[in-house]
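ARCHIVE CARD
Drawer: 12
Card no.: 0347
Subject: one protein chain, sequence and derived structure
Cross-reference: see card 0346
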Amino acid sequence: MSNETKAINRVKVKINGEDYYIKGTVSEEYIRQVARYVDKKMHDLEQNCSKLNRTQLAVLAAINITDELFKLKQEYDEFLTAFDSETKG
């Protein structure tokens, strides 16, 4: 295991009108990109479901993002299976 420690970036982002400080070993731009994505998801939901409170918006955004992740993972797994079949056949 490497003794190198990665620098921890601390980035101030705005999500749904509130400031958050996000820390991570990834680049500041990546942290900002992720925050923008979450902010956009919450903003889009707020436009369509204006009666939801912040917590409900956050949970619904998390469910939608998780759904996207699961669908992409399924597509990836199917791709790997097809690729593996082609390379063995």
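Annotation on reverse: The chain is about 65% helix and 15% strand. Residues 54-88 form the longest helix (35 residues).
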